[in-house]
Amino acid sequence: MTSIFGPAFTVFIVMFGITILIFVHELGHFIVAKLSKIKVEAFSIGFGPKIIGYTYKDTEYRICAIPLGGYVKMAGESIADKDKKGSPDEFISKPPFTRIGVFAAGATMNLIFAVPACIVMYLLGVNFSSPQIGSLTPGKSEWNSGLQVGDTIIEINNQPVKTLEDYRRAVLRAPIGTELAVKALRGEETITTTVVAKGSQGFGALPLANVVKRIIKGSAAEKGGLRPRDEILEISGKVIYSNKQMLQLASEKKDQPINIKIRRPSPDNINVSAITTLTLTPEKLANSLYDLNSAENIPAVVGSVKKESPADIAGLKPGDKILSVNDTPVLSWYSFKETIKANSNTALSVKIARNKEELTINLTPRADFDGAGVIDMVCASSNALGEVPVGSPLESAGLKPGDIIIKANDEEISDLTDLDAIVWASKGRPVTLQVKRDGVTIEASLSMKAKDQWLLGIEFKPKSVRQQYGFGEAVIKGLNESADLVILTFQLIGKLFKGEESTKGLAGPIGIFRFSYIVVQTEGISYFLWLLALFSLNLAILNLLPIPVLDGGGIFLTLIEKIKGTPVSEKAQMVAQYIGLFFILSLVAFAFYNDIVNIILG
Q1: Distance between CA atoms of 103 and 544, rounded to whole angstroms?
Q2: DSSP letter, residue 332
Q3: What residues contact residue 494 under an 8 Å CB cut-off, 6+ apart?
Q4: Distance in angstroms (rounded) separating the CA atoms of residues 588 and 414
Q5: Is 18 helix (H, G, I), strand (E, B) or coil?
Q6: In angstroms, rounded to a whole number, what is the distance separating the alpha carbons of residues 150 and 374?
Q7: What pLDDT, on a 0 to 100 scale, did the predictor assign at position 486?
Q8: Are the C-beta atoms of residues 271 and 251 closer than 8 Å to each other?
Q9: 90-113 pLDDT per residue, tens
Q10: 326-351 average pLDDT score
Q11: Torsion over CA: 167, 172, 173, 179 (sign)
């Protein structure tokens, strides 16, 4: 992770930013209450025990121990307030529309805050991910659309796309199931396709990640003259767009020199970047790997097929088992994948098994972004071994093709990736396996010898597009961005209530803090300002929902009072408060659950 700031200072920045949002919200309530001549007994940032307090003109200003909120305590705040005296400076004594103004002031201040935050962001300059695709998640909308790694999205539904965020917002706004017209550049060719909107969980286009984010001190990259912000164009003549590719190449070349073509940005980010070539030699690290890669040895069975892909055109279907290619037997997904990679734009005769019948099909892999053959097919997950490589730890453990791994160290194995994770964590200690062979369960002991680790010492981040403007343009862009984020937030909330958007994306305090920390560490203050603007708008809109215990609930009950002419009864208010509190606590608990799951799953 790039350390733009040190960890301690990053934590301070994040806490300060979130505190500012709370302060702004409560300041809105405070200002309107004071203007309405309501006695404010306390203005607090945070909950729980008071750390420090100062009283001025009947108001105590507090900072409390738990910085996850704040409050303004007004005299006679509710009909249930035991200390109310009926005096004219009490909240409950004020006319309904005055009270509604106090309730709405917090959200209004949060809405206002987003505008200068976005303006300052554009003045300082902010980086958004480039619309060039670096990877596609199998089964997601973009994977099925015909888009390919390396394509640059330039338009969606006739609207220009300058960043991947532009594209993402257009997809999120669209009703679920809507087909969106997409234009993209593929080399010098413009291609047109359609993407089906499936909400945030259906979004599967990740940006090209080929910009140096971090260089390990003393590594081959540092010795070879590579710098942060350099854009990697080619390594040994191959286009590189992921950390995985780079690690693979370093392992293949080991201690052989590698030529790396880079684009080095000018110091001011405005002038033309220079293209140059550096020579780096991978270095063996002291810490070794325990990488089994057994997941590559599963049977070559079709899991899913991209529409209009080479696999689809050839007639491959989920469940098909690959038996041979050009009469050469296929034992595993790995051997099939390697054959495909080596035969781009070459017709292959493939024998498959489908429903106990053997068929022969013609398959022509297309050339991928780096020239390797691909057919746009994903293998079905499995806990069975299709191949046991000679001399591998799997063979040493006495395992054979067709064996099904049931358990490893008493943990259930549903996919061989589970086994890889357990072996990785074992650091060379023996792993006890339960294996099913020909219907009989047997035990085996798997030991993994350390593998040498060869690295260049580079960590990538997504290629970005910098957006920076003078004051006039920054104001216009900031206003437009704030309005756009408000509309997007309302649309996403609407989809959540209609069940069209997954609740998996809901984040609680842990998730918000964790993501904010990463943003500040890797992207700096400008992008964090954008994030604060988004949080502020979300806080405003959520607070206005007609749920008791939220400001919107207070507005709702006060409107009922205005319509019926008398206050809502104390009993009805208490019941509403309990229902609202239960709803909010359930939502917070669910968000905490999401946070914990996301941390565990990475």
Answers
A1: 9
A2: S
A3: none
A4: 32
A5: helix
A6: 13
A7: 84
A8: no
A9: 888 888 889 899 989 988 998 999
A10: 92
A11: positive
**24-47 residue pLDDT tens:** 888 998 999 999 998 888 888 877
* Pairing between β-strand 357-363 and β-strand 348-354 as defined by DSSP bridges: antiparallel
For 182-227, what is each residue's pLDDT tens digit?
999 988 899 999 988 887 777 788 888 888 887 888 888 888 888 8
Per residue in 511-536, pLDDT (tens digit) is: 677 777 777 776 778 888 888 888 88
Q: Identify the CA nearest to 109 among candidates 544, 520, 546, 492.
A: 544
Residue spans of beta strands (DSSP E) within 173-223: 179-186, 189-196, 205-207, 211-215
Set 26, 142, 283, 387: catalytic member: 26
Residue 551 structure tokens: 């400001």
454-382-352 Cα angle (round to 5):
105
Length of the chain measured in residues: 602
Amino acid at 312: D
For the segment 431-445, the average pLDDT, to the nearest whole number, is 91
Amino acid at 489: T
Question: Model confidence at 80, in pLDDT bands (50, 70, 90)?
Answer: low
User: Treating both helix axes as pointing N-terminal to C-terminal, what angle do 525-543 and 96-124 enclose, rounded to 10 degrees?
Assistant: 160
DSSP annotation of 474 reads H
Do 253 and 488 contact (CB within 8 A), yes or no?
no
189 is catalytic: no
Torsion over CA of 100, 106, 111 and 113, rounded to 10 degrees? 150
Q: Which amino acid is at 599?
A: I
Paired strand residues for 177 = none
- 601: confidence class by pLDDT, cuts 50, 70, 90: very low
Buried b (16+ CB within 10 A) or exposed e, 505-524: ebbbeebbbeebbebbbbbb
- Whether the CB-CB separation of 246 and 228 falls below 8 Å is answered with no
Which tokens sit at 537? 């708008």
Radius of gyration of the chain (CA): 29
Q: Which pair of structure tokens corresponds to residue 470? A: 């003078």
pLDDT for 140-183, tens place per residue?
A: 888 888 888 888 999 999 999 999 888 988 888 888 888 999 99
Q: Rounded mean pLDDT of the chain?
A: 82
- The sheet with strand 357-363 has its strands ordered as 328-329, 321-325, 348-354, 357-363
Question: Which residues, other chains included, contact 339 with Cβ-Cβ below 8 Å and sequence gap of 6+?
Answer: 325, 328, 330, 348
